Amino acid sequence: MNENSRKKTNLKTNAGNFFEDFRIGQHLRHASPRTITVGDVAVHTALYGSRFALQSSDAFARSIGYPCAPVDDWLVFHVVFGKTVPDVSLNAIANLGYADCRFLAPVYPGDTIAAASEVIGLRENASGESGLVFVRSSGTNDKGVLVLEYVRWVMVRKRENGRTETPPHVPRMPPAVETHLLGDACPPIAAGAYDFVLSGSAARFDDYAVGEKIDHVDGVTVEEAEHQLAARLYQNPARIHFNQWVEAQGRFGRRLIYGGHVISTARALSFNGLANAFHIAAVNGGRHVAPLFAGQTVFAWSEVIGKATLPGRNDVGALRLRTVGTRDYPCDAFPDKAGDEDHPAVILELDYWALIPR
Amino acid sequence: MNENSRKKTNLKTNAGNFFEDFRIGQHLRHASPRTITVGDVAVHTALYGSRFALQSSDAFARSIGYPCAPVDDWLVFHVVFGKTVPDVSLNAIANLGYADCRFLAPVYPGDTIAAASEVIGLRENASGESGLVFVRSSGTNDKGVLVLEYVRWVMVRKRENGRTETPPHVPRMPPAVETHLLGDACPPIAAGAYDFVLSGSAARFDDYAVGEKIDHVDGVTVEEAEHQLAARLYQNPARIHFNQWVEAQGRFGRRLIYGGHVISTARALSFNGLANAFHIAAVNGGRHVAPLFAGQTVFAWSEVIGKATLPGRNDVGALRLRTVGTRDYPCDAFPDKAGDEDHPAVILELDYWALIPR
Amino acid sequence: MNENSRKKTNLKTNAGNFFEDFRIGQHLRHASPRTITVGDVAVHTALYGSRFALQSSDAFARSIGYPCAPVDDWLVFHVVFGKTVPDVSLNAIANLGYADCRFLAPVYPGDTIAAASEVIGLRENASGESGLVFVRSSGTNDKGVLVLEYVRWVMVRKRENGRTETPPHVPRMPPAVETHLLGDACPPIAAGAYDFVLSGSAARFDDYAVGEKIDHVDGVTVEEAEHQLAARLYQNPARIHFNQWVEAQGRFGRRLIYGGHVISTARALSFNGLANAFHIAAVNGGRHVAPLFAGQTVFAWSEVIGKATLPGRNDVGALRLRTVGTRDYPCDAFPDKAGDEDHPAVILELDYWALIPR
Predict the structure, then answer these.
(1) Cα dihedral angle (B224, B228, B231, B236), rounded to 10 degrees?
(2) ipTM for this prediction
(3) Which of A58, A309, B198, C315 has its CA 20 to 30 A from that of A123?
């Protein structure tokens, strides 16, 4: 049964928005606010095995100036992202990219996060069958504090094929979040208190050089149950992750793994080499270069593409990192684009600022 | 080794009760009381991806009159159910049905639930090889408050084949829980405070009509690991869910998925169309029509089969819903019985009262 | 790329220690201290379905003298073990055994555990390609209290083949933890308060006889996702559990299941027959006799090989148990060694003291 007639039969179910439903400046308040708990943190740990000390230990967190272990930055992101899906990307063909993502305030277990989005760009495709939708999404806690903001753009199906007169409006994306905007989610770190043995590495800000490449060595084979548990933990209902009965006849024949699952897997792998990059302060850009399916093995490597001190503070500095995730392809030779052509094994590219003790 | 000789060899292991072991009026206090925590809530969210705002957000819950987000009603049910299994259904051939189930008090993270059952019916089968056992089970919290009661009946093996003189006693089951008995687990809902954007739907009590059918659209493919994690979360040790080495030679050749996993999956799917049916107040009847196995995809649809206002309150009303779950069969055409003959794709029928804002 | 050149290229990643890197008396403070929460407890319950009442219910725990439900003893062990892996066994060929393991103080949700190890033995193999490394590892909580100590030994690869002059030093392991050392993690149990119905069994200390064998009956088929979730919950990054891309060419062609997953599975199965053995006080010895792989079914049986009263207390006694885990082999006939030859189906042997009410 096609989407149109289903929609007429029963207006109570959510058919999602099609390209024609979006307007520049439209505000969307998303459903299902979520209290993030130590339970969510534990499931996230079981999904990725993250070993970063700050998020793992209340004692370590308190020793350096946090009230307790903050929630993993990417877990916060996925929870917010999941809430945008019913309104933004239910009819998406592809999740094309992220930019201008800032982690603005720490999130602690017990905080409730609500999500909202503003439509900031639209561009119909020449085919008239789909179009790009750009949204700026935000997560706000129950005290009204903005904890996260980011821009993403998706290719969304049109309800009716055929070109329309929609004037294209593509927002200008900063190539990177400016360094003076980094660090709002990181309290002052007690200088001598950061334990470099408990953190897992002695390498700090000065030990990384721009141009340095780090192979994160380990690989993780992803299972169907795992990525489904993840997407559901994030309350992300996108059908393409769950419905093998439909997907068997779909583009890939398989359930597509939520791209955020790849991001968190790569982040956990990056502990091996970047253990003291304890906080993701901002994401400058991100792209799911190719899909991942269950049974495939994720590897990752990173390059230090920038370094910055933060104005007015000398407890932490920022490393600009480019992390590349691959499937079924170890990264000892740092597989990467050749010119504009993506490497066939690359599934993720992420350009972000992470904070590290100085 | 047959059950009898194992039982004689080692009386410390639980061989479970056989039909002959039950007596009308017998009281069973079940083992393994359980403190339900935010950890259990998080694992349940990862298993089903439930998006109901009340159970998802402490802030939303408080805004409408709860002290914090209550534990999902079905999670409470499964925890109680799991405790009855070692005493009631270890030797069951089939879990045949539920009735007269009432959610009597809200359950919050930190509450400890203990379970007990009373045998209220027995009827030996003509074959003399098994019999129906009817129990009324209850969950009580650590303050002694009854939080849940329900009746279920199972086909239980006999220890020794051959007809006995057991007089049949089949309890009368009310066709539905009377509406004046609904709502004890739902505090007064602050009228203007319920946010219909955060809840995910604008549809309230008056927007549903008796006879209306709702296809919940989405399907979820269940994996072996998922249903095992679920049954274990509920401390349900029924072998048929876990032991592929034995089940490979069994009736189905596969591990049977705990029926409650299907119930919670269908409930989560029903958010799409029934997002404001925020509380399951009672279950009038339920039947696992056919088994589900890993690799199959669950779909669901619901029909509004009744509506009722609740005496003395106008904050919420009750929708009587009949939710049908299928395997590998989308529900746009509302697959259902033909007369008395079950539809071959239907795996679950549930008749329940859910509360919804007026 | 071989380990050596990778290590020179990038000193920030952890190549792990090789046999030559260890010294007798060397102290290792391990990374990633961990606050164990009710979230971790819930995931552990979902992984194993443990029904022991003490760890399941705050109310039951308080009734017998604990402030609340303590964290499962094996969960504490796995969390500590996971932290030792990056420093001790990243280059291990085999995890050969455990001994002299004592649970020294109860651990409660909210406690932060840090791990450390001391190298207490080294013995190069005749082949010159590997050697035995013996460590005494400990877990300490954030108040500085020692909660766990144990010895384990692993076969670790050498960086460079060829015999060296390393003098062998093999520590003497006590055959069992002496009974006067048992019980520090178990507060005085309120004599009449222990509810033998809620606990799941009426069998107490006097009901077990030395020589008695108990078949735990049930079997659990393990899935890839489950053992990966477990190892990651424990922050155990050992590659052999996760990387099917590499392991497909490895010794087994499969991902090896973390031995601790087998231990916890066997412990949960042992509830059937040993429900009142509510606390693991010490492990005298343990051996992963053979590997386990996903799709295989774990069964278990136990023998009471000793009994002891504890000096100065008569609330609990100690049972010395030998629990044997098998794969794809029910234990009604108590499969066991024939002389020195292991039974082909046995995967685990565990010799431990458990406390039980008197």
Answers:
(1) 130
(2) 0.96
(3) B198
How far are the Cα atoms of B351, C4, C89 from residue C163, in angstroms, in the given order? 74, 19, 21
Contact A231, A238 (CB under 8 A): yes
Output helix, strand, coil percentages for chain A, rounded to the nearest 5: 25, 30, 45
A280 close to A246: Cβ distance less than 8 angstroms: no
Band the pLDDT of C10: cuts 50, 70, 90. low
CA C121 to chain centroid: 20
Interface list for C 121-160 with A (CB within 8 A): 142
Among A40, A122, A28, A105, which Cα is nearest to A78's?
Answer: A40
Min Cα separation A255/chain C (Å)? 16
Q: Cα dihedral sign for B189, B190, B191, B195? A: negative
C295's CB contacts (< 8 A; 6+ apart) are B244, C221, C222, C223
User: Torsions phi, psi of A184, nearest 5?
Assistant: -65, -25
The helix (H) or strand (E) run that includes residue B118 is: strand B112-124
Q: Chains near A, with 3+ CB pairs < 8 A?
A: B, C
pLDDT, tens digit (0-9, with 9 covering 90-100), for C207-219: 999 999 999 999 9
Amino acid B282: pLDDT: 98
Closest CA to B39 of A114, C113, C36, C236: C36
Using CA atoms, how far apart are residues A140 and A152, in angstroms rounded to an integer?
17
Chain-chain contact of B225 with A223 (C-beta, under 8 angstroms): yes
* pLDDT tens digits for range B58-67: 999 999 999 9
Q: Which of C36, C44, C60 to mutate to test the interface with B (most CBs of B within 10 A)?
A: C60
Which tokens in the block code for residue A333? Answer: 């030779």
Location of structure tokens 């022991």: C52
Residue C100 Cα distances to C132, C151, C324, angstroms: 17, 6, 18
At A284, the amino acid letter reads: N
pTM of the predicted model as reported, rounded to 2 decimal places: 0.97
What is the token pair recorded at A165? 């007169």
What residues contact C324, with CB distance under 8 A and at least 6 apart? C300, C301, C302, C303, C331, C334, C335, C336, C346, C348, C349, C350
Cβ of B223 under 8 Å from any chain C Cβ?
A: yes
Within chain C, residue ranges assigned H as helices are: 3-9, 38-48, 53-56, 58-64, 73-88, 224-233, 244-247, 259-269, 271-274
pLDDT of residue C191: 75
